[in-house]
Amino acid sequence: MSAPDAQQGTPGTTDWAARADHVARSVTRHFGRRFLFLPGTHLAAPIRPSSRFPGQPWNYWWQAHYLDCLVDTGLRELASGARFDGGDRPSAGELASRLVTTIRLRNFLRYVNSYYDDMAWLALATLRLDALAERVHKPGRRRNARLQKSLSTQFESASTDDMGGGTFWSTKRDFKNTPATAPVALHFARTGHPVRAQGLLDWLNATLFEPSRGLYLDGAWIKEGKLVLAQEVYTYNQGPVLGTLLELGGDANLARAAALVGSIAEHLTVSGLDGPWKLVLRGEGTGDGGLFTGILVRYLALAAADARLPRVSRATASQLVLDTAEALWAGRTMRTDAANRISGKDDDDAWLVFSTQPQRPAAETYAPGTAVELSTQLQAWMVLEAAARVQ
């Protein structure tokens, strides 16, 4: 099956939903698998082809973002009444429910791990899955309530007054950072704890916000009694901060959200592009970095749709989403390697591969025959789902 044409649906428009369905099929078919061949389980392989890489690491937080992507697709399934992968295959919601159960199995029968940011991403994704289940009148909230309670206790424990506030990154409790504090704050905001969420946001604004660029730094340590900042600025850190600002609302938070959108457009986009897209977000490479830009785009889509923000901010957020999506789609390539097929599946579709860098063709960043990481393909899926929402 060939990739969807650029123009579908209403003449003169891009059918982003069709494109998102295509990448959803590609990822679920070519990375998705049973865990230990157990029926009713579902997990994503971290790399394809996997036979070349025995003893693959356990990427807990990649699976959490896989869950978020499945929920995105499930919401579109609900709106359209059609399954993304045909009527004889599981729905996105069914795969998502299996994934939540399988994450626990793979994580040694528990959802708790050593990294609070990992747990926060899973908790956020599961909240969205519960909301999807509620909309289709299927039980889900009660089953995942135990997960939420368990992880919420972890977030409360990790959010302390050390260093003036914030959330620890790991159980070592030696580093507080934006990757943990921002999604934990967003989780508090979405679960009825706005005061806790605002407290964490205030710490980020006071400690890790860099006024010169209007962006959030990575984190902070205490060394020899002094606060030492990690100066790195990553795309994904800005995303959950933006989400929390929007979730909490209020004049001050919304003003910060609008300013943050502008700073992202100014400092985190690729300069000197030859193509027609002006606001393409930079990529952050492979490995964990392969998720970073996709995470940011997820929250930019929320900003694009938020009528409380100024029109110019919404337009900028929308352009960041759509230009990045267009660049990724234009640079895609297709693979038909038999070695990349999942055993036991009727997998006659070509394998859709996206670049690690939106402005570069996938054939350059993933040369033919090289292995492809799940993180980078989830990133593209997130971006295309975001484009479908802001279209």
Notes on the structure:
By secondary structure, the chain is mainly alpha-helical. The chain has a domain at 248-391. Helices cover 51% and strands 8% of the residues. The chain has 13 helices and 11 strands. The strands form 5 sheets. A 3-stranded antiparallel beta sheet has the order 4-7-8. It has a two-stranded antiparallel sheet with strand order 1-2. It has a two-stranded antiparallel ribbon with strand order 3-11. The radius of gyration is 20 Å and the shape is globular.
Describe what is shown at a glance.
Helices cover 51% and strands 8% of the residues.
Task: Sum up the overall morphology in one term.
Answer: globular
Low-confidence stretches: 1-9, 339-347
**What's the count of strands?**
11
Mean pLDDT comes to 91
Task: Please indicate the percent range of residues in DSSP E strands (runs of 2 or more).
Answer: 5-15%
Write the layout of secondary structure elements.
Elements: H1 16-30, E1 32-33, E2 43-44, E3 47-48, H2 60-80, H3 92-106, H4 116-135, H5 141-158, E4 176-177, H6 178-190, H7 194-207, E5 209-210, E6 215-216, E7 219-223, E8 226-230, H8 235-248, H9 251-267, H10 292-304, H11 311-330, E9 333-335, E10 351-353, H12 362-365, E11 372-373, H13 374-390
Antiparallel strand pairs: 1-2, 3-11, 4-7, 5-6, 7-8, 9-10
Features:
globular, two-stranded antiparallel sheet, mainly alpha, 391 residues
